[in-house]
Amino acid sequence: MEKNEVTNILIDALNNSDEGFATFKKMFNECADAFEIGEDQKGLQIIKELIQPLQDFCNFCADMLQTHAHMMNKGTLRVLEEQCDMLEKLMGELIKEMEDGNFVEVGDILKYDFGDLTSKMSKSFPEVAVSIEKYEVPESC
Amino acid sequence: MSLIQKNLQTLKADSSFQECLSVVGDSPVYFENENPYNNAFFRTPEKNYPLQSLRRPEEEAERIVEHWLSTGNSESGIYVLIGISSLHLIMKCLDQLDDNSELIIVEPSSAIMRSFLENNDLEDTERFKTKLTLFCPLTDYPEREFRKLINKKDLFCKKTLISPSNKRFRPQLIELQQNICKQIQLEGMDRVTTAKFADEWLQNCIINLPETVKSPGINKLYNKFPETDCLIVCAGPSLNDSLDIIKNRQDDCFIISVGTALKPLLNYGINPNLTIVVDSDPKVYKQFEGLDEIPGYLLATHTIFPGIFQHFKKSFCYNCVVTTSYSEWLSDSGINHGQLNVGGTVALSALDCAHKLNFRNNFIYGLDLAYAEDGTSHAKNTMYDGIKANNGLIEIPGNWNKTVKTTKQFANYVEILKGYMREHIAGSCGKFFNVNNNGALIKGLNTIRPAKSAELIKHSEQDFNQILNENYTCEKDLDIEGLCINSMEELKEINAEGKTLLEEIENGKFPNGIEAFEEKIKNSKVSSKLTEPAMQAWCMSVTTKFENDPIEMTKSFLTQINGSTEWVTGLLKNSYERFQQINKGVQHGA
Predict the structure, then answer these.
(1) How many Cβ atoms are within 10 Å of B249's Cβ, its own excluded?
(2) Which domain holds residue A103?
């Protein structure tokens, strides 16, 4: 049986996620670099632009797991779940350190923690897409 | 051996630096064990904040230093890091700075400095040629101590940096950085002035020798006037508003006039007791042109334009820091005139004079350092009368107006006077009032209106004219003849040796005696002191001109020595002859 339209859109998005991850990474580095050399206002401006897309991305991952986890093989699902947990955790840390004015740590989280995570996700997303594609939708009763 | 002791050895720290570490207190910055260098944290009641990346501190330090050095040229000089950071940042600075440069770390908190030295091993810093100096000023005026530190250095300060984290958690360092930058600017101005005028100053010193050796030093008057009020008169446009008050009170008070204010005072029937002159520039002679037998005493530094002495019957002299080597040479004959501060404006020397003479209260008139609303910068009847402001004025805080217009040069004088008041006058007995209806704000001075000064000035309880006359006594048994003759002989000897060595080089021989010659100059009581200005000028050009050619450099050195010894010998000969003629009663016209 064929997959529904939402699933096809998801597969397409996962296969074309590279550009989005590259944009994120660029913004992480720009923001961290600004804090690193003491340009705090610039760093804060970038982070202001970054927070909503990051939050949207977290929601996207959470929705994906909720609606399509059953379509992924066990190995791929475990990796994706770990990555999404990490994403949630880092978002929490980022917001807390931002509120505390700990810009050195904010820079570290963006440049290294989010940077590493997005690299990993940019590799795992196409694998998730393949896994969902391979999933055979059972015939309805 | 403890780590701090090891570090002090590595840094070759002197006793004053070690003393600053004995101050007890908790450090808000602490260091945690990490490899290869400790991480630094800023402690607050709520949370401890890292001062560097905890993931890749070395890479971060490298980028910060690259950014710091990316603007301007990266030539040798002194680079100043304000506030202790992690050792990662310090190591990267040492790594990226030119080998001939020096990194000075200024840390105003001795507790932080001690914590740094107790928890970081500085041994690794020795692998760099760039010199590392840690500086921990103990006084309330760290920028002034910093100035003294850089004043002793050959290199010039290029850049200052506060790490971004220190900027966030220790914002007081930003003010320190601003103050340090001002001191760097003033030091630069002083160096340029010295390089430009050192030869002119020495020349004037020697030409003035017959007059200065016959003048008592200002130190004869130190602390003599505790029951006398003093009016210090400068030549700013606000002086016009105060001449009546000064005239009415001139018999009650001692009056010190700066040279520029002399004509307005005399024109108004006011006779100053001392007229103070610093400038060597022939242009200032205009202040005295047309005036004969000026009443009162001239107070002159040895460097003043020579013709000025002859307008006064009597004079006191003082030494200043720019002619220290000449003063040392002069002291060999038994002359010690005492020293006054100089720097930028003659008003500084006038204030220092009043401070050292220990007046009861001091009322400063005409110290505007700003342009009046009509665009004038000086009082009527001064040599600058009628000259109005050009474009390019800046605004600085005023005494009564929020801002006043002035030049960058005057703004620097304000800083110089502010620093002087803070360092020398704060807490002293005599009060200093800035009497002005306008003018730039000089922190440390009490600003009052002229009318108020008329109420505050009190009649002197001392006969200050008598004190002046009683102390106008010259030193006896001065061996000027011996000093001049011996100096000329020694200079001639140096000159002859220099010429021989120069001939050897020009004939293609290596001058074997060059090192001994250099030692001889260094150890000489005369040539090292009287040829210093010429050698200073030579040193300024030598690093850039002869980088790769030691023979050309040696030739240039010998040529300079020969020229300067001949020049100084000639000046000394003329002055000595004039000194002898004056002693025989021969008069010289103005």
Answers:
(1) 20
(2) 5-134
* SS3 readout for B278-336: CCCCHHHHHHCCCCCCEEEEEEEECCCCHHHHHHEEEEEEEECHHHHHHHHHHHCCCCC
Q: What is the pLDDT of residues B169-218, one digit of tens each?
A: 999 999 999 999 989 988 888 888 887 888 889 999 999 999 998 899 99
Tracing tokens 């350092």 back to the chain, one arrives at B369
Are A104 and B49 contacting, i.e. CB atoms less than 8 angstroms apart? Answer: yes
CB contact under 8 A, A103 and B168: yes
Return left, alpha or beta for B358; rule: phi > 0 is left, psi -120 to 50 is alpha, else beta: left
In B, residues 48-67, which contact A (CB 8 Å cutoff)?
49-56, 60, 63-64, 67
φ, ψ dihedrals at B461, nearest 5°: -90, -5
Mind telling me how many Å the CA of B167 is from chain A's nearest CA? Answer: 8
pLDDT at residue B34 in the model: 78
- Measure CB to CB from residue B53 to each of A37, A101, A107 and give the nearest one: A107
Separation between Cα atoms, residue B521 and residue B562, nearest integer Å: 12
**In a domain? residue A39:** yes
pLDDT of residue B546: 56
3-class secondary structure, A12: helix
**Chain A nearest-CA residue for B48:** A102
What does the pLDDT read at residue A141? 45
Residue A141 located in a structural domain: no
Tell the residue number behind the tokens 């600075």, with chain if given: B93
How many domains, chain A?
A: 1
> CA–CA separation, B343 vs B189, rounded Å?
10
d(CA B110, CA B136) in angstroms, rounded, equals 6
Supply the ipTM of this predicted assembly.
0.89
The SS3 of residue B430 is: coil
CA–CA separation, B589 vs B587, rounded Å?
7
Beta strand B361-365 pairing with B394-397: unpaired
Going by pLDDT thresholds of 50, 70 and 90, the confidence category of residue A1 is low
Quote the CA–CA distance of B387 and B389 in Å, as a whole number: 7
A140 falls within a domain: no
| Closest residue on chain A to B65 (Cα) | A37
pLDDT, residue B18, reads 80
pTM of the model: 0.73
Residue of B nearest to A38 (CA): B164
Record: contact B164-A100, CB cut-off 8 A:
no
* CB of A138 less than 8 A from some CB of B: no
A36 touches chain B (CB under 8 A): yes
Q: Is residue A49 part of a domain?
A: yes
pLDDT under 50 in chain B at which residues?
A: 590
Mean pLDDT over each residue of chain B, to the nearest integer = 90
Question: CA–CA separation, A38 vs B174, rounded Å?
Answer: 13
d(CA B337, CA B218) in angstroms, rounded, equals 6
State pLDDT tens for residues B463-490: 999 999 999 988 777 788 888 999 999 9
B196 close contact with A: CB closer than 8 A: no
Q: Identity (one letter) of the amino acid at A46?
A: I
Q: Does B86 touch chain A (CB under 8 A)?
A: no
CA A54 – CA A25 distance, rounded (Å): 11
Nearest residue on chain A to B59, judged by CA atoms?
A: A36
Q: Where are the alpha helices (DSSP H) in B13-119?
A: 15-20, 57-69, 87-96, 110-119
